[in-house]
Design a protein that fits this description.
The protein is mainly α. It is built from 13 helices and no strands. The longest helix has 19 residues. The model has no long low-confidence stretch (mean pLDDT 94).
Length: 222
């Protein structure tokens, strides 16, 4: 496909998914304190959003804000986040990023990419989530769902797995302001239909509209 054809397809995919899925984040952070979304996003690495949502209640009851977490003992935080996996590193990151926020940003989550990337445990995926959901800055959260599905849809070769490269590719195909909501819809779609294993192709709304490059190729090859 040419770039123009990919732009047309991604617009059609976005329109189809808008009809099916909400654009809210699957992490139920409440919408008031961006620090809570930052914490939950860090916990979500190699875990599920459902598990993080369950973990967040007791965690925030004990450590309700950035200041409380900054004073916490890492060992105690570990007891609250253990079920999310990689809990030693995650607990350490949560305490250290909270301390950095207090020391360098007055307890507020920064908006700029470079500042976000300085926080312990924060990479481009989390930074783009924060910039999109909290600050309205746009961007693409290239998580496993986004990487898998957009490859299947033909926006880049399926063998491409580099999140940064994929982010740049998508930025060339869609207005970055559309990116956050698009990526949230992709997550819902990836869980319910276009799963990593046993995708539900027979009920796929994108396949019905001939928008899946992977299945289009398979059909052409017999």
């Amino acid at each position: 496909m040419t770039k123009a054809e990919k732009q047309k397809r991604i617009a059609a995919v976005n329109a189809a998914l808008k009809e099916l899925y909400p654009d809210e984040c699957a992490l139920l952070w409440g919408g008031d304190d961006p620090w809570r979304l930052l914490v939950m996003a860090r916990l979500s690495a190699q875990s599920t959003d459902a598990r993080v949502n369950l973990t967040a209640g007791p965690l925030f009851a004990r450590f309700p804000d950035c200041a409380a977490m900054a004073e916490a003992e890492v060992s105690e935080v570990e007891t609250y986040v253990k079920s999310c996996g990689l809990y030693h590193r995650k607990a350490e990151d949560l305490v250290n990023l909270s301390r950095m926020l207090l020391d360098e940003f007055g307890g507020r989550v920064p908006e700029e990419m470079d500042d976000l990337l300085r926080l312990p445990g924060v990479g481009r995926k989390i930074a783009n989530l924060m910039r999109g959901d909290v600050f309205g800055r746009g961007g693409f959260v290239t998580d496993t769902h986004c990487i898998r599905i957009c490859g299947r849809l033909g926006f880049y070769p399926e063998k491409e797995k580099n999140p940064y490269k994929i982010e740049k590719i998508l930025l060339g195909l869609m207005d970055e302001k559309e990116g956050p909501a698009f990526c949230h819809r992709i997550v819902w779609f990836g869980r319910e239909v276009c799963r990593a294993q046993s995708p539900a192709c027979s009920s796929c709304p994108l396949l019905a509209k001939s928008l899946c490059e992977k299945r289009n190729r398979e059909a052409q090859n017999g």
